[in-house]
């Protein structure tokens, strides 16, 4: 069995679970750091483990283009190639292909696109994407889907749902390895299309389900509404994965609605731009007000950066362009989200997720806008 999922406890719709994969057990809800090109930027695998990372995400599109999946296969698979012995989820690369809209075109077979690296032309079909992910050797693979932008017309989203279902069927038929393949629910912000997509994919009996096409520019409340429509339609005994979402409040709200898995580039990208996650929103360490601030980055945080370095020193490093500053901020941001998800798991175990959710809303509600304006990337 490529994957097994068990629910240990529920607190309302929230689930405390355990995901069994060929490369280890994952406690859920889980946040997966993003290692797009076979590395979580600025971090070693040992550092990720020390921070509490259980599972990471890599991207098929990027690894296909560079260094190439054949090189990774020759190296013994992605786990050995990148020196990570824990579970790996690979995205299909569909989002990257469709986000390069001027450089791609759809055919009956799949999608033809031009590389963002050298302009060379390539064809992704559902079958090829499955084969590429089998070559990578990931524990969980994603089907090729079409993720429409926001906003998109009803006609565009209807076509995307139909294509996503057809490609999901072809992906299942193409499987030849013991790899857990997840279907991806699309449908934009149209309730009936979300429900249609969910029904069609559930009928195909995937071992897990992702919710795609969110956190692409729509208002937060609309994202939560789409989750309210979609999550109850997914099989309760299977893992549910909300793709590309990593804001702390979004994770808490999605967990409360029954989501188990998350990934996002937010902690690493924010760190590279001088930003830090805090319980009250984002902090931009580049701001001049921190030049003589000798307190920790986030008081009370027990991460390596906060325990050993001041805001003034981090301000200096980032303003001077020193790599250490970006590494320390990335360390803090990953620690923040990984610790948050551990606290969420503990709260569900106690039956107190509602209390955590209320405390978070009260704590960050009044200051979030100002801090995000300072640190937004």
At the first level of CATH, the class of the largest domain is: Alpha Beta
Low-confidence parts lasting 5 or more residues at pLDDT below 50? 366-377
In CATH, the topology of the largest domain is named: TIM Barrel
- Please work out how many helical segments DSSP would assign: 16
- Lateral arrangement of strands in the main beta sheet: 4-14-13-12-11-10-6-5
Number of domains: 2
Average pLDDT score: 94
At the fourth CATH level, what is the homologous superfamily of the largest domain? Answer: Queuine tRNA-ribosyltransferase-like
Can you summarize the main beta sheet? 8 strands, parallel
Q: Which structural class matches the secondary elements?
A: alpha/beta
Describe the global form: globular
Overall radius of gyration: 20 Å
Distance between the termini: 41 Å
Strand content: 15-25%
> How helical, in percent, are the residues?
40-55%
CATH architecture of the largest domain: Alpha-Beta Barrel
Count of β-strands: 16
Protein name: Queuine tRNA-ribosyltransferase
Cofactor: Zn(2+)
Enzyme class: transferase
Family: Belongs to the queuine tRNA-ribosyltransferase family.
Textual characterization of the structure:
By secondary structure, the protein is α/β, with parallel strands linked by helices. It folds into two domains: 4-264, Alpha-Beta Barrel (TIM Barrel), CATH 3.20.20.105; 271-375, no CATH class. It has helices spanning 45-51, 60-65, 69-74, 78-82, 94-99, 126-136, 154-174, 191-202, 220-230, 248-256, 266-272, 304-308, 311-319, 323-350, 353-365, 368-375; strands at residues 4-11, 14-21, 24-28, 30-33, 56-59, 88-91, 104-106, 111-114, 121-124, 140-142, 180-185, 208-211, 240-242, 261-264, 275-278, 281-284. The longest helix is centred in the C-terminal third of the chain and has 28 residues, at 323-350. The radius of gyration is 20 Å and the shape is globular. Residues 366-377 have low confidence and may be disordered.
